[in-house]
Amino acid sequence: MSDTYKGDILIVDDTPENLRFLSKTLSEQHYKVRSVTDGTMALTVAQSAPLDLILLDIKMPEMNGYEVCERLKAMEVTQDIPVIFLSALDDQLDKVKAFQVGGIDYITKPFQLEEVLARIQTHIALKMATQQILALNTDLEQRVKQRTLQLEKEIAERQIAQEKLLHMALHDALTELPNRTLFMKRLAQVLDHAKKNQDYTFSVMLLDCDHFKVVNDSLGHLVGDQLLIAVARRIEGCLGPSSMLARLGGDEFTILLEEDTKTGQKAIQVAKRIQSELTYPFQLGCQENFTNVSVGVVLGDRNYEKPEHLLRDADAAMYQAKAQGKACFKIFDSAMHHHAVTRLQMETDLRRAIERKEFQVYYQPIIDLQTEKVVGCEALVRWPHPTLNLLNPNVFLPTAEEAGLIDKIDILVLQKACSQIKQWQTQNVISEVFFVSTNLSAQNFLHPDLVQTIENILCVTGVKGHCLKLEITENTIMKNAQVANAILAQLKTQDIIISIDDFGTGYSSLSYLNNFPVDSLKIDRSFVTEINDLSTEYSNLKITQTIIALAEHLHLSTVAEGIETREQLKKLQQLGCNYGQGFYFSHPLTAEKMLQFLG
Ligand code: C2E
Ligand code: CA
Ligand code: CA
Predict the structure, then answer these.
(1) 474 CA to middle of ligand 1, Å?
(2) Residues 135-148: tens digit of each pLDDT
(3) What is the pLDDT of residue 232?
(4) Pocket-forming residues, ligand 1, beta carbon under 6 Å
């Protein structure tokens, strides 16, 4: 559109002079002009060409201007084109009709040039303004529509994001299972429901993978993760619709079983099914892996106050199941509750006792069976518990071991025993070769700092290596055969004496002994106690005999534990056992009593 272009105009007039005059004048004024001489043509042009204005003669043969205008206004494409009527002065101009049929103005002939131009200009400007307003309006509507759409999209996106966040907050990312939070919510609802409906029963199962740590440590976390996913899927496959499986974290899963029987029949069935399904291997990459689960079950008693307590008790039951061996299940009873509470209390007390070094060491004399003279002693830990009197190790060591605290206790005992030996040496109440035996737990034996720690203790106390005997159970050594050999070799470089404790109760693989740098065997008390009972075919006597013969052959010394009677002593002397300890000679004694015993 050129700068000077002012608009498209159609002139309709049956008088050629009029047409010519108007056409010329308007063209000079930069209007684009078309002209026709009758109504029919006017309608045709108006429908096909874009027009800004029509100048329409009223008096025409065939179809007069009013009719043409009426038709124009009746058609959608032409109805908005402004129409200005042209009328001769002598014509009877019906102004009312002119406006009725849709005209917007009229010009009378003969034409006054300025008037014609002014009216045309005004109407075209008016039309253009109207068009502009219309366009603006449409544009505005469009924008409002777009903005609305965008807002709707944003709201939808936000909703999706929120749902995602909510899902993440309530699900475990690895297995996609509900997590602890969601499980506890559901459990709270179910417990609440059970409180209101006496007939409603449910149960909670807690599952812990056996040996999972081994997979993680040996094959890496990635394989561990894959195994967990596979386990989750397999457990899922064992569950019906009225149960919820969740991952509590680590290798622990939990199941909520609704509508179980009062005795937990459903839980028992499910546990058996899961454990049987898990006996099949998991194919992860190119290797097969195995894991099963220990299961603790708690019956949904509505007397429970909080959902956490249900989980706590399922955990206690699971713990008992683990203690029974792998892939077992146990239903919680109140004895377990008591056990769990005591155990927890014991653990707390133990931590405090370790911090305050509250342990005492008792010494049990070890006697040379030929001379019947005391040649050493075994250091045995005691715990003067603040409220429970003096505790024996079998009461608290299992808890200490489970809680990973036993190595600290062992070291405390080792320190005390070594300073005690040094003190007796300085007091000249024992000879240069008098030894003290201390017990070493598996945890401690495998501790990477063990050798260094013992070296430091010997150095600080000034005790020679050959005065220290370490008692290690055969299970500890056999279960870690390769590392054991290296550790024992290192200890031997310091002349420390190595003794295998509880010999005969563990692997009892006599042939391996040759492979380890050990010095001494401790014949377990169970053989000594019944050494004179010959009723069984393979009697304790025979076993003891075999052990002693084997030890002699391998140049190992033998120490018999738990000698309580003169007969037992006699027998052991006959068999050639080197050393012995037991109530027959002495109970374990405090340091002061031991001093008296030595004197
Ligand atoms: P153990 O190594 O077999 O120690 C010998 C246990 O037998 C001691 O029990 C001792 O009091 C008991 N005993 C000794 N003579 C007789 C007897 O004639 N008859 C009977 N019935 N028992 C006798 P204690 O002191 O209760 O220790 C139990 C176990 O606790 C020990 O068995 C040992 O395995 C462990 N233990 C003790 N102190 C420590 C320690 O400092 N560290 C570690 N890791 N374990 C320890
Ligand atoms: Ca021992
Ligand atoms: Ca023993």
Answers:
(1) 16
(2) 999 999 999 999 99
(3) 96
(4) 364, 380-381, 392-394, 397, 406, 410, 413, 439, 441, 471, 501-502, 525, 561-564, 581-583, 588
Per CATH, 7-135 and 180-332 having the same topology is answered no
Say how far apart CA 90 and CA 485 lie, in whole Å. Answer: 135
Give the tokens for residue 419.
């300073």
Domain spans of the chain, in order of start: 7-135, 180-332, 345-598
Q: Are 520 and 497 in contact (CB under 8 A)?
A: yes
**Looking at the domain covering 180-332, what would its CATH class be?**
alpha beta
Q: What digits encode the pLDDT tens for the residues 203-262?
A: 999 999 988 887 877 788 888 999 999 999 999 999 988 899 999 999 999 999 998 888
Work out the angle between the directed axes of helices 265-277 and 221-236 (0-180°, nearest 10). Answer: 130
Cα–Cα distance for residue pair 416/591, rounded to 1 Å: 10
- Candidates 352, 349, 365, 471; CA nearest to 410 is 471
DSSP state of 420: H
| Å from CA of 437 to ligand 2 middle | 7
Q: Which residue has the tokens 């253009």?
A: 128
Looking at ligand 1, which atom is closest to the CA of residue 406? 44
Options 3.40.50.620, 3.20.20.450, 2.60.40.1080, 3.40.50.10860; CATH of 345-598 = 3.20.20.450
Mean pLDDT of 368-375: 96
pTM for the complete prediction? 0.59
Please tell me the class of the 7-135 domain: alpha beta
Mean pLDDT of 89-112: 83
User: Could you list which residues have their CB under 5 Å from ion ligand 2?
Assistant: 439, 471, 501
pLDDT of amino acid 511? 66
State residue 1's pLDDT score. 45
